[in-house]
From TrEMBL:
Name the record gives this protein: glutathione-specific gamma-glutamylcyclotransferase
Keyword Lyase (UniProt): yes
Position of the signal peptide: none
Enzyme class: lyase
């Protein structure tokens, strides 16, 4: 059985595992948002950054990519993803139905935010997000690099995300 993973942030440009198939996909009931404080990868405990997470919302849809693990590498892929994504338990691993652009519906491993976790910061104004992202740096590099990479890859895929586009432009302006 094929193991699918839904990518909506850094998995778009840095999956970190061997991908068998890559298909544009939609996840209903969730939206992509900088709603998680990053104290490891894109910020520190002293100066947290922000990373994307899927936040549940009635009527929302998140456009992203479904990535299948290369056949035979499912266990290795899942172990890698858990080490990467579950570093602070702010993300919760869920298996959710995802609609692929080619008409298939698959069940995909998806990492969503726990709204009760201390790192959750949903509904933060975009200007506040931009100011945090412009200055934070963590173990995987500058927070703005994460934003710009994700925004650029969404644009390359033809997936519009007005909030990320605005944030990317605003962060560039703040840093110039």
């Amino acid at each position: 059985m094929t193991m699918w993973v839904f990518g909506y942030g850094s998995l778009l440009w840095n999956p970190g595992f061997r991908v068998g198939e890559r298909v544009l996909a939609r996840l209903p009931g969730w939206h992509r948002s900088f709603c998680m404080r990053s104290v490891h990868h894109r910020g520190t405990a002293e100066e947290p950054g922000l990373v994307l997470a899927l936040d549940a919302a009635e009527g929302a849809v998140c456009n992203g990519v479904a990535l299948s693990a290369e056949p035979g590498a499912e266990e290795e892929t899942l172990a890698y993803l858990r080490e990467r994504e579950l570093i602070s338990s702010a993300y919760v691993e869920r298996i959710l139905p995802v609609d692929l652009a080619d008409g298939r519906r698959v069940e995909a491993v998806t990492y969503v935010i726990d709204p009760d976790h201390v790192q959750y910061c949903g509904n933060m104004p975009l200007e506040d997000q931009a100011r945090i992202i412009a200055r934070a740096t963590g173990g995987r590099g500058p927070n703005d690099e994460y934003l710009h990479n994700t925004s650029a890859h969404l644009a390359e895929l033809g997936l519009s995300d007005p909030d990320l586009e605005w944030l990317s432009a605003r962060v560039r302006a703040l840093k110039s």
